[in-house]
Amino acid sequence: MVGFPAARRCFTRATVDDHDEKERLGAFRRLFDAYEGMLLRYAARLTGNASAAEDIVQNTFVKFIRKWHRKIEVSPDAASWLYRVAHNEAIDHLRGEIRLRKLHAEHGGEVVARPGAADEVSERAENAAQALSRLSTRERQLVILKVYEEKSYKEIAEITGLSVGNVGFILHTAIKKLAAMLAAKEGR
Questions:
Q1: pTM for this prediction
Q2: Which residues contact 6 (CB under 8 A, 6 or more apart)?
Q3: Does domain 1-115 have CATH number 3.20.20?
Q4: Which CATH fold would you assign to the domain 118-188?
Q5: pLDDT tens digit string along 166-180?
Q6: Any idea what DSSP says for residue 3?
Q7: pLDDT in tens, 84-139
Q8: Residues 6+ apart with CB under 8 A from 101
Q9: What does 22-33 look like in DSSP terms, one character per residue?
Q10: Cα–Cα distance between 123 and 8 in angstroms, integer?
């Protein structure tokens, strides 16, 4: 929790002298250690911004501390809840970015393109990252959850609030779009 002072402050405001609170703090640390990296990667892929991803994940854990009333443990329920909140936080962040860009455009400011999240060196990887960025936000989120985070359709449905069938349809469409964009880029 070193990188997330707000989450640490929120959690440690409680009296840690109490045995139950010590157990709760230990459980939270285990949960944090288990999911922090995955949530950071997910948020960074969605936003293309590592700094924003850190804020998103911090907000996610703060919300977890405040709103999770069940036993704190590493579990599929906790993972789904955390991914869902991180997903919503990332969407809120992206909407805020869009509003900011529109505001800059309306007032004559230059819109600076945010750097891509892809660190890959190869041209094919860069082409794939560019194609992914051209998908709709919803399609991109589902592809990231399926391909990068290796989530099942059921897990993706729980995270996004979509039905399993809708997840399958959107992923199928998104993958076809990606394939077409990559084939066009490679001149096939």
A1: 0.58
A2: 58, 62
A3: no
A4: Arc Repressor Mutant, subunit A (1.10.10)
A5: 999 999 999 899 888
A6: T
A7: 999 889 888 888 777 767 666 665 544 444 454 334 346 777 777 788 888 898 89
A8: 111
A9: HHHHHHHHHHHH
A10: 41
